[in-house]
Amino acid sequence: MSDGDAVVAGIEAGLTELTRERADRDRDSTCLNDEEQRFYIAKGNFANPSAESATNLVGLLKGQLIGKGYSTQVVDNLDLWEDDVSVAVVVNPETRVTFVLLARMNSTPNVMIVGKTECYPVNA
Question: Mean pLDDT over all residues of the chain?
């Protein structure tokens, strides 16, 4: 939660309609019965879209998380970086938390930050 909050805090002033789901409840749809998974979701719109760049914002967010020990995981770099849509996936190898960072110019919400844990035992 703290990594997600730190990333959002850095861009919060440039977003409108910001909502956060701070994983107050578990979602276990992909886990075994005795496991759980936690999520962090933040969504918002650019306050001034004409002054923003999807690629620059995702690069900034990715850099912040890399500074916190995350590493970059990319499926196909050509699919993830375009002028109007940018996506980055970073994983913390120690905590096994994954963040998906998305910024897009033509659809709302313009910015989505999704963090999730791996499945872990309920009593861990």
Answer: 86
